[in-house]
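So, can you check?
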Amino acid sequence: MERLPISISNHLTHRVPRFFCDESQWHRRPYWMNHCHHCGAKIGDYETIEAPGAPFNVHTFEASKLSFSLISEDFEAAAVLNKPCASKSIRPADLL
């Protein structure tokens, strides 16, 4: 995600505390990624999208397992491959 309004990043961080913008050593840039709820380790795209059996793998994806959250405001976001996150990294502690 290259550009995301702070109100939307706050919403995401509140709703999914382990999904936030963080530095990727593999891609050498920050991007929005999941983190382990036990130890906080980064969980990159390979583990969530590309690996066989990954939860969002295009070959095995089951949309019925998703939960949705209403965002009641208009917003714009831009995702560009190999670009850094434009919004500030917000962690759960920042919301307190």
